[in-house]
Amino acid sequence: MRADALTRRSFLAITATCALASPLQAASRSRAADVAREGLDRHASQIAHRDTVAIADFSAPSRLPRFWLVDMASGRATAHLVAHGRGSDPAHRGWVERFSNEPGSYATSAGGYRTGDYYTGKHGASQRLHGLEPANNLAEERAIVIHGAWYVSDAMVRDHGKLGRSEGCFAFSDASLAEVLARLGPGRLLYAGKFGIA
Q: Domains in the chain, start-ordered, CATH in brackets?
């Protein structure tokens, strides 16, 4: 398959062979669904597909699964490890201390994003993001995307007690990336902030 021919269907096929992400407890699932509905309400006019919503809850430390994929019809959700930007955690403690939208900040930005096209870049299979708020509207200029990273894994958590850091992108393990890309085709909502879900 050509690098520029990546499709949501091809990622769905990949996902079938990957390990499942961590299931959420009932209370967390309910809270995640509430946050997803809040995000959809806030950005209704800019989101074409509302079947699945992604939530990045940066109130939790990086050692915990804190990126949720919520099926809006069933309420089912899975949680994945996700890295935050090094500019949001300068001392590398494993917690987001601040958000920033500034170019060169290497920080994570809060707010709603619309998922864009798939592409293959320096990190392999990736997906573009379009910031929908003043707090993240420079996402494209800053090249804030979804991608895989070697520094996101259960082994990193086991050995270091935290994940490595991105330059502001939403970075995942290879196994999680397959499900994230499969379920977040273009035109869906990724909602990032500190929500206290877990």
A: 3-91+104-193 (2.40.440.10)
